[in-house]
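Exercise: predict the structure of this protein bound to zinc ion.
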Amino acid sequence: MQTVRLRACLAAILSFLLITAIAPCGCSSEPSAPVSAGAPATRASTLSSASAIAPADVAPPPSKTGGFDGAAAYDFTAKLVSFGPRPPASEAIERTQDYIDSQLQSFGCRVDRDAFNAQTPIGTLAMKNIVAKIAGTGQGIILLMTHYDTKRIENFVGAEDSGSSTGLMLEMARLLCARPPQPNSVWIAFLDGEETQATFQWSDSDSVYGSRELAARMAVSGDLKKIKAVILADMVGQKNLHILRDSSSPKWLTDLIWRTAAQLGYQDVFKSGETSTSDDHVPFQRRGVPAIDLIDLNDYMAEGYWHTPEDTMDKISPRSLAIVGHVILESVAELQKRP
Ligand SMILES: [Zn+2]
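Solution:
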């Protein structure tokens, strides 16, 4: 009897061990929508790929980052990367556009789409900007931006370069679209065509197609003059992230963001040094709009995987996404207080 019961017990223990052994790798490469925040203290991502996240890169709980969920932003980034290389007018970018659009709608955001044809050195390319518009009680507009296209390089999936900032802005939309109206509207623009199409090297004439289109459209509609500030995020998910002050942006705007970062205790990420990058904020600056670029290009290039197939999810830190998301969220709140 005993042995029978013992055998039954052993069998039960064995099957229990087996189940728990299999569960963590769940092996769904397709990330589901991020689970709600109520998980234990520090929430690791739900994805199998996240099992490799070092403790130092685990995102703080959303309760510690103003409600911004770094692990969710990581999950969005991984989903975007799972579409593969996403250059303009590719099949993969259409799937990316559908994903961004459906996520924004699922957050209850009002979504505007602007499909346009870009004249590029490799011919006319169909592109699309997707803008989530969170209405405010007043006339002003705070414009947040990211590009979601990847550079036209074989096997380049752009986890850091376009994936990270787009994952961050999806999480930003999830949060802000659910909040009551503030004095200024907040627009979150997902831009196409940031990368050069014909050459590896950057060129002002063959780049930033989406932001040029958006700036021109807003000039025609009269919305351009309503912009209080533009905050662009690009390459903001890497480990050991260091963001330098953008010397091309107005000092009051850089000071506001760096003061906010310091008050939140992120001086190790938002550094006092200066840099200047040609990026999607330039078409707005050229039209006299206060615009800033939050970017870590230096480390990204120094690490050697800039614009290479090695720009993959193992380079992404949910903690970095949480920190930049938290700073942008609180900076928007500061901008909302400005007369
Ligand atoms: Zn790039």
